Amino acid sequence: MGNTANPDIIYTKVDEAPELASASLLPIIRKFASAAGITVGTKDISLAGRILSAFPDALTADQRIPDDLAELGELVKTPEANVIKLPNISASVPQLVAAIKELQTQGYALPDYPEDPATDAEKAVRAKYDAIKGSAVNPVLREGNSDRRAATAVKNYAQANPHRMGDWSASSKTRVAAMAGDDFFSNEKSATLAKAATAKIVLETAGGETVLKDGIKYPAGTVVDATFMSANALDTFLAAEIEKTKAEGVLFSLHMKATMMKVSDPIIFGHAVKAWLAPVFEKFGDRMEALGVNPNSGLGDLLDRVKDDTEVMAAIDAVNAERPLMYMVNSDKGITNLHVPSDVIIDASMPALIRAGGKGWGPDGKEADCVCVIPDNSYAPVYDAAIEFFKANGKLNPATAGTVQNIGLMAQKAEEYGSHPTTFEIPTDGTVKMVLEDGTVLHSHQVEKGDIWRSASARKAPIEDWVNLAIDRQRLTGFRAIFWLDANRAHDAELIKMVKPILEAKGVAGKFEIMAPREATIASLETITKGENTIAITGNVLRDYLTDLFPILELATSAKMLSIVKLMQGGGLFETGAGGSAPKHVQQLQEENHLRWDSLGEFCALGESFRFLAESKGNAKAKVLGDAVDAATQGILDHDRSPGRKVGQPDNRDSHYWFARYWAEALAAQSDDAGLAAEFAPVAKALAEDEAKIVAEFAAVQGKPADIGGYYHADPAKLAAVMRPSGTLNAIID
Length: 734
Description:
Strand content: 15-25%
Number of strands: 24
Helix content: 40-55%
Largest sheet: 10 strands, mixed
Strand order of the largest sheet: 2-1-3-24-23-4-15-22-20-21
Oligomer: single chain
C-alpha cells in the first residue's frame, strides 16, 4: 500500500528535518488514510534524488531512480493532482558539492561537479548539475498561484501564548543599506507583448555578436522584463558600507537569497567576499585562484583552500583585524555571515533580526545592532520600512496583533528572477539586447564586464488568475487588501495596467489599494498593530519574503503557515509552510537524537488535502478525516504538545504520537461516519492506555548520537529505526 501507480495523495520526499519527520509521520498518515480507502504515495524531489535521477548512465541498474520531479511537473497540470509538498533544499553550489560527495561515498559513481569545465563532456555534466541548483523544484510544481495564511488554530494559539519579542529602541543603530542606483531596480525595463513571440538574448561587442540565449517563447500578453546590476557600482557600494559600518561601531551583515536566485545572488555574495578581503585579493589574487578559490562559494571555502599558505592567512588575519565586527551564523564555531552563501537567506534572516529588536549575534557571542546590506533596491525598502516602524513604535505585540495573509503571483514561473537560464554574468563590455523574431529590439542595456544581467517574465493567464484569487479572498474575509506594486518600477507599472481593468470590470476597485512596497509595509504594520487584518497581494519574490516576515513576527515561525496552491488546471498543491528545511535540526538529531522540527505545517496541509479530495473525488470519508485532522491539530496546540528545543524534552516523535492519538479520538467521537468511528475507537483506546510506555520509549533514546546513514541521502532502514523507536506505538500503527 502507499506507492501505488496512481495514489490519491502524493506526499513528497524531501531533505533535512522535514524528511526525518516524514519517517515517523507518514506511517501514521497511511494507517488513517487506508481506513477511507485512500492511498498515499511518495515522489522523491530531494536534492539527492534529483542528482541521482539526472545521471542514470553513471549508476548501476538497481541504483537508478526515475525523475520524480518531472513526473510531478506533469501531474500538477491535471485536475487529479493532490500533492502535499514539504520544504526541499534549494541548493547552493557548496550544498550541491557536499551532496555529490556524500553520494559518491555511498557507492554512487557520480561525476564531480566541474567548477571550471573545459571539455564538452565536462560542460554537459556542469549543465546537468546547474539545472539542479537553486529553486529547481518550485517553478516546476507551482502551476498555480499562492494562498498563504496563518491557520485559525495557529493564530489563536499565538495570541493566547505570545512568543518573546526583542525590545526596539528609538536610538537603535540598526539600518538597511541598499545601492543608490545602477542596481536591478533602477535599470529595469518592462514590456507587455501584444502577440506571441520568440526572443533571443544577444551581447553585441566590438568583436561581434554573441547569442546568450535563443528560442525563448512567450505567449501573447506576457510581461517581459530585463535589467542589470553594475558590478562597479556594487563594488563601490560594498566598500563604502564596510567603512561606514566600522565607523558606526555595529555588525556588518549581508542578506541575500543565494539559493532561489541561483545565478545572480551567489555572484553578488562573491563580490562581498572580495570587498571584505580586497587587500588580500589585490596582493594574492593569482595565487588564490591557482588554489581554486572562488569567492562566490564563500569565505569558508576560501579559508579551507588557503589554510596551508601562511602568507595569505596572515594577510587575511590582518585585514579582518581592520574590518568591523561581522554578524555571525555560529559564533561558537567562528562561522561568519560570509562563510557559506546558503547560510544567510534573507527571507529568514531579516525577520529573525527584526523580531530580535534589530539585533544580530557578534563574534563575541553577544547581540549587537547591525547594518543589513541588501544591495538591490527592489525589496530592500520592505525591511527598511519595518525597521524604521519598530524604532518609532516599539515591538509588535503578538497577543493583540492582527494578521497579514498573502496572495502571491507565482504560477508558470512568474517573476522567477535569478533562478532560470536567462541570467548572465557579462563576459565583456557591450550591449545586451532582447530581440524578437521579427527583429524588434524589446529591451537593450549598455553593460560592462562583470555586470549581472537578467530577464524574467509573467504570463497573462497567471496574472489574471492571481487577481481573481485576490478578489475571492477579499470577498471571503472583508479584510483590507493591498496590491504591493510600485508605479515607479517598470515591471510593476505593467502589472498595474492589467490589475486595474480587472478590478473595475468586477466592480470591486474600491475594495483594493495599490501601494509601493515601502508604503504597503507601513500600512500593513499599522493595520496589524491595531489588531486588524490585511491581505498582501504580491509578486513571486515578495510572496516568498512576506510569508516569512509577518508569520515570524506574528507566530514566531513561518513553518506553521497554511499554504495552498490552487493549481490552474483544477488540482491542489498543499505546501507545509515556509519554514525552510532546518539543517540545525538535523545536526541536533545526529548529535543528541532529539528532533525539534515542528510538523504543524504538515498537519495543516494534510487537513486541506483530505478536504480537497472529498470535494474533487466525492469521498465523504476524506472530509471526516480532514475535519478530524483539524481537531487533532487544535489538540496539539491546546495541550502544548509541540516539540521542545532541548534534548530530554518531548520532540517531534512525541508530537506525532499525540497527533495520532488526538486524530483517533476525534474520529472515534464523530457521528458523520459510523464505520470510521468504530474502526478508530480501539486505536484511540490503545494509544491512551499505552501513553506512559510509548513516551518512555521515546525518552529512552534521547541524549546519544543517532546514525541515519547520511545527511543528504539517509539510509531508509536506519532512519526508520531512529524515528520510530517505540515498538509499542509501531504495533498499534502497523
